[in-house]
Design a protein that fits this description.
The protein is mainly α. It has helices at about 1-20, 20-40, 50-60, 80-90, 95-120, 125-135, 150-165, 170-180, 185-200, 210-225, 235-245, 255-265, 270-285, 290-310, 320-345, 350-375, 380-395, 405-410, 430-435, 460-465, and strands at about 400-405, 415-420, 450, 470-475, 480-485. Strands 2-1-3-5-4 form a 5-stranded mixed β-sheet, with helices on one face. The termini are far apart.
Length: about 500
């Protein structure tokens, strides 16, 4: 086994050296320039859930602990690895919003480079560069900046890369880091382990399991000692949310139509073109490509990943779809290659030069399309941002404010936030899942409750409290589409 690993490493090193690192790295960096430009265009983008991370980090760096609300040690962090990386970067860079965007751009670029090496290493350097540009201008990825998702994609790529290079020690390290990025990464680890056992007819060397076990155990021990629970509450909270039925019924995770409008600006021609290329490339990869086995591993991973979200009816938040989009771009690039080959066979003689150019022109059109969607400058959701700033100016420092969407409002409002949905507060997620929408008010005593106008179903408990005379609208609050309920027992701000 050691000999096989050494030979694989030598072969990979020779291939890289043969191309010349001085030639490969500059091409990769140049290919990432469109990505970095679009990241700069979106440098003010603030995803609501991403700001939950930043509030934890800000409190930690301010000496108040790794908590959402000071003095309340409740673990609402989805990704421990990403949280600590943001903290480390935040020590060096004061502006945490800048940290979020820089890390996202770096992980996004690194993931594309790893996937290019993984799936197109036998192709020309030009093909790998075009793939990086295609992925670096793809509009979806800029809508997940601030979350751990680009890091998750990078870890998926590194695990696959190490597996196919037989670098099993490093595979163990990245498998542990993948699990600490998102627990759903365990499905890829399970597929790789099964493939290894089937092919090698033996279990992996136990020494390769030490690193991931230590990494995961260290995180569990920290969680238990710091928060009093081994696992973060976010996983169970999302399951309770799905069971509530408030996000939709049936196989909610398959309800992806909103992405067409939101990500691709309703440009169905662009979506259809991508889809046709993805199907063409996927069929070719599964049935005709030289390294078919790795594509079946992708299929099995995505199948298990999908079943997890579908059968637990977890809400269809857009960042959960990142692995599908990344692999779709791989098969899109594969489809472009198949298209080029078939076109070359059809157009011969004088038209052969045209046949060689058309696929590149076609790819350039896709990149132009994607960059056009991605270049739209985005910031924070303005109403939530303005509401958060208003709360800072018009409520007492010690006021407790209950809201459904806590990210942006909690970031801009330096107030104690009660999360009605239970991502950063105990009990509330279970109450939502059991459809006991007013029960949380028996355990928490907010001074204010922000609701929508008309109210969302999630806010039924607040409406019931208003009808009972416990809360009344604050006349100073004049934001259209929202209402601020103030406890009748609260003192003057």
């Amino acid at each position: 086994m050691k000999r096989r690993e050494a030979e694989a490493a030598i072969c990979a090193s020779r291939r890289f050296a043969g191309e010349g690192a001085q030639r490969v790295l500059p091409i990769y960096l140049l290919s990432c320039l469109p990505l970095f430009y679009l990241a700069w265009m979106n440098r003010h983008y603030q995803l609501d859930d991403a700001l939950i991370y930043l509030r934890y980090v800000r409190n930690f760096l301010d000496g108040q602990g790794l908590v959402y609300n000071p003095d309340i040690y409740f673990n609402g962090l989805t990704s421990p690895l990403y949280s600590w990386l943001v903290i480390l970067a935040g020590v060096l860079i004061e502006n945490l919003q800048t940290v979020n965007i820089l890390l996202a751009a770096f992980f996004h670029a690194a993931a594309l480079i790893v996937f290019a090496e993984l799936f197109f290493r036998t192709r020309s350097l030009a093909v790998r560069g075009v793939f990086i540009i295609l992925g670096g201008t793809f509009p979806y990825f800029f809508l997940i900046y601030g979350m751990e998702t680009p890091l998750f994609l990078l870890m998926i790529g590194l695990c696959l890369y190490c597996y196919y290079r037989a670098w099993y020690f490093w595979l163990g390290v990245f498998a542990g880091l993948l699990t600490l990025t998102r627990t759903e990464g365990i499905f890829l680890i399970a597929v790789l382990l099964a493939d290894y056992v089937i092919r090698q007819r033996c279990l992996p060397d136990y020494r390769h399991l030490i690193a991931p076990i230590l990494l995961v155990a260290a995180n569990l021990a920290f969680n238990r000692g710091y928060y009093g629970a081994y696992l973060p509450a976010t996983g169970s909270a999302k399951i309770w949310q799905g069971q509530s039925g408030l996000w939709g019924e049936g196989w909610l995770f398959l309800h992806v139509g909103y992405l067409t409008d939101w990500v691709f600006a309703s440009n169905r021609l662009y979506v259809l073109t991508l889809l046709l290329l993805v199907i063409l490339g996927f069929i070719h990869a599964i049935w005709f490509a030289k390294y078919r086995a790795r594509h079946w591993i992708v299929v099995m991973f995505l199948l298990l990943y999908s079943c997890f979200f579908i059968f637990l009816n977890i809400p269809n938040y857009h960042w959960y779809y990142a692995p599908y989009f990344m692999f779709a771009l791989v098969y899109c690039m594969e489809g472009i290659g198949v298209f080029a080959d078939k076109l070359g066979l059809i157009l011969q003689g004088r038209l052969s030069s045209l046949g060689r150019r058309l696929p590149f022109l076609f790819t350039a059109l896709l990149i132009y399309w994607g960059a056009g969607f991605s270049s739209a400058a985005r910031g924070a959701f303005t109403p939530y941002k303005d509401i958060g700033l208003w709360l800072n100016q018009h409520t007492a420092q010690a006021a407790k404010v209950a809201v459904v969407e806590i990210g942006t409002i909690g970031w801009y409002a330096d107030r104690h936030i009660i999360d009605i949905l239970g991502l950063v507060n105990p009990l509330n997620a279970r109450f939502i899942g059991e459809r006991k929408f007013a029960e949380w008010l028996s355990h928490y005593s907010p001074d204010y409750i922000l609701i929508h106008d008309p109210p969302w179903p999630h806010e039924a408990g607040a409406v019931a409290a208003q009808d009972a005379g416990r809360f009344a609208p604050d006349p100073r609050f004049t934001f259209a589409g929202y209402a601020l309920l103030r406890s009748v027992d609260a003192g003057k701000p």
